[in-house]
Amino acid sequence: MTRSLVSRIGRTRYGRAMPNPADSHSSSRPAASTEIVRRNMQRQKRRDTGCEMAVRRLLHAEGIRYRVDFKPLSDERFRADIGWKTRRIAVFIDGCFWHACPQHCTMPKRNTEWWEAKLRANSARDQRADAVLRSRGWAVLRFWEHEPPHEVAAAIRTHLMRRAS
Ligand SMILES: [Zn+2]
Hints:
The protein is an alpha+beta fold. It has a single domain, classed as VSR Endonuclease (Endonuclease, Chain A, 3-Layer(aba) Sandwich), CATH 3.40.960.10. Helices cover 48% and strands 13% of the residues. It has a four-stranded mixed β-sheet, sandwiched between helices. α3 runs parallel beside α4 (51-61) and α4 (51-61) packs across α6. The termini are far apart. The structure holds zinc ion. Zinc ion (ZN) binds at residues 96, 101, 103-104, 144, 146. Residues 96, 101, 103-104, 144, 146 line the site of zinc ion.
């Protein structure tokens, strides 16, 4: 089954075929690749079991259908985690490490400078994506993965109803 078909019918899909390019692409990685592997594994675990999956299940249980892991704008590379194209709502549920959550992001002790630059670039990319989307009339909802899923789902629902009317 293709990704788009799965997205269209809003079925819960466990895991992603591809890592989010906004998080992981890089041309110059540090030598300590074990750190990256470890982080990626932690992240993968969170992604499969964490906030985003819980939010999707909550929405789905209410009969709400949505796209997942999609490009809101065809001429921009960034992807939203959940959303609606016709209503122009993009939801991002940001991982605490990769998006530098002030509460939970701890900088790796090795290659600290590289990681700081990397995470700064990620944050800058997030801010730019928000600005571009808003300039084109999109509602941007950005959450941390540490937020309670039922609160995230409730906030999404509120925006969805507002945009539907
Ligand atoms: Zn956090």
